[in-house]
């Protein structure tokens, strides 16, 4: 039996076990604190990246919306350019068909006003090699009855 100042062998063994368990608990507590700190750091990093991801998703969504609206504008502009190109070609063809080509007329005989010189019929600047009989008008006809002006000769008429 145990005296009041002495511990029994079972009690001493229990105290040793309790001390060992306290040491283990202290070690676990220290290591658990390190693990919890690391988890908090990871949690903070995940939250930071989550906020960055949200911002990036908003910017991407905004850019996608802008791209879609610009794509529609681009398609409309392409159609408008095609329409205007066709109109320009039509106007150039009409203008070309309205022009007259002077054939056998010497260069620079008209002076400053070609129309006035032509209308007056004045041969004052023509040299003797060219007479009014050699002068003819060549009408620039474009697409007559759907024909390509390059494939068909121009009509000529004398004046």
Automatic annotation (TrEMBL):
Pfam families linked to this entry: DUF2203
Q: Which residues are in coiled coils? A: 39-101
UniProt keyword list: Coiled coil
InterPro entries tied to this protein: DUF2203 (IPR018699), Transposase_22 (IPR004244)
Among PANTHER family, the record links this protein to:
L1 TRANSPOSABLE ELEMENT-RELATED
> What name appears for this protein in its UniProt entry?
Uncharacterized protein
Species of the source = Nothobranchius korthausae
């Amino acid at each position: 039996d145990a005296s009041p100042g002495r511990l029994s062998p079972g009690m001493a063994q229990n105290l040793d076990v309790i001390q060992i368990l306290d040491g283990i608990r202290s070690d676990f507590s220290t290591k658990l604190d390190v693990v919890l700190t690391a988890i908090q750091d990871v949690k903070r990093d995940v939250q930071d990246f989550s906020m960055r991801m949200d911002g990036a998703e908003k910017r991407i969504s905004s850019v996608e919306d802008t791209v879609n609206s610009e794509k529609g504008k681009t398609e409309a502009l392409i159609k408008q350019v095609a329409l205007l190109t066709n109109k320009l070609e039509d106007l150039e063809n009409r203008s070309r068909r309205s022009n007259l080509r002077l054939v056998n007329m010497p260069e620079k005989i008209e002076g400053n006003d070609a129309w006035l010189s032509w209308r007056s019929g004045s041969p004052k600047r023509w040299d003797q090699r060219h007479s009014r009989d050699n002068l003819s008008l060549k009408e620039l006809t474009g697409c007559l009855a759907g024909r390509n002006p390059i494939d068909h000769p121009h009509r000529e008429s004398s004046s």
